[in-house]
Amino acid sequence: MRHSDIIIPKQNKPSISPRCRKLVKAYKFERTQQEITEVELNRAKIVMIDEHGNMKRIPILAEH
Length: 64
Fold this sequence. Notes:
This protein is of the alpha+beta class and 64 residues long. The protein has a domain at 18-58. Helices cover 39% and strands 12% of the residues. The chain has one helix spanning 18-42; strands at residues 46-49, 55-58. Strands 1-2 form a two-stranded antiparallel sheet. The longest helix is centred in the middle third of the chain and has 25 residues, at 18-42. The two termini are 54 Å apart. The relative contact order is 0.08.
């Protein structure tokens, strides 16, 4: 059996500034809030009121 002598040097992780960490955290938080908003918008129900004042639900098919 042959043994490989290939050596890959370890790369040091660059130091991330606290300001950058704060931006990343804010971005991830807002992204999850947007996903929650989109889900809530998808649950919206649209109704139509006819000339007699009766509410009729309009079924909307999903775009998927």
